Amino acid sequence: MAKAKRESANGRSASSRSDAIALLKADHREVEGWFEQFEKARSASRKRDLAEKICTALKVQTTVEEELFYPAFLEATQEEDLHHEAAIEHDGAKKLIVDIEASGPDDEYFDARVSVLSEMIKHHVHEEEMKDGMFAKARQSDMDLPALGEQMASRKAELMNRMAGRGARSERRSAGAALGTRE
Ligand SMILES: [Fe+2]
Ligand SMILES: [Fe+2]
């Protein structure tokens, strides 16, 4: 009886909310929204804020995919071409993210970098989500998507916390520099 109860509790936690693919799709939609807002943004501070959100989210997403989702996908499906192309697309995006983070809205190439990153991510997300793409093949495989989703959600939270801590430290440093004080 107790066992049956536990199983049904597990069944609930395996709902679409914690499913690995649902989690990744929600993350994709979030970043898409920020890219759209960036296109409409006029002020430098708004652009800086959105670019920071986009870069942080993409670093977390690519890490979670590469550490957990992609290896599980490759093991379950043996789809090397799909997997390797996706990994190489991540590499391209990461290079651009480094450049965006090292520059700012006062750099004349800043908007171009963000807009090219947006195009790259659009293409990449389409490849993941399209018919016969990575997510569709993952659904057809025997991957344990609910369990993987739980692992991914906790890794994501850990990475977000770590990055938020780093952001706060660098803000304190620049506030200190503006006041002529030392941390
Ligand atoms: Fe990806
Ligand atoms: Fe993705």
Which descriptors apply to this entry?
single chain; 183 residues; mainly alpha; disordered C terminus; binds fe (ii) ion
From the N-terminal CA to the C-terminal CA, the straight-line distance is: 58 Å
Beta-strand residue fraction: under 5%
* Shape type: globular
Rg computed from alpha carbons, rounded to a whole number of angstroms:
19 Å
The number of domains is 1
Give the % helix.
Answer: over 70%
Number of strands: 0
Characterization of this structure:
With 183 residues, this protein is an all-alpha fold. It has one domain (19-159). Helix content is 83%, strand content 0%. The protein is built from 7 helices and no strands. α3 runs antiparallel to α4 (80-102) and α3 (44-77) runs antiparallel to α7 (145-178). The radius of gyration is 19 Å and the shape is globular. The structure holds fe (ii) ion (2 copies). One fe (ii) ion is lined by residues 24, 28, 61, 65, 125, 128. Residues 24, 28, 61, 65, 125, 128 line the site of one fe (ii) ion (FE2).
Concise structural overview:
The protein is 83% helix and 0% strand. The protein has helices at residues 2-13, 20-40, 44-77, 80-102, 110-129, 134-140, 145-178.
Furnish the topology, listing elements before pairings.
Elements: H1 2-13, H2 20-40, H3 44-77, H4 80-102, H5 110-129, H6 134-140, H7 145-178
Helix pairs in contact: 2-3, 2-5, 2-7, 3-4, 3-7, 4-5
One fe (ii) ion binds next to helix 2, helix 3 and helix 5.
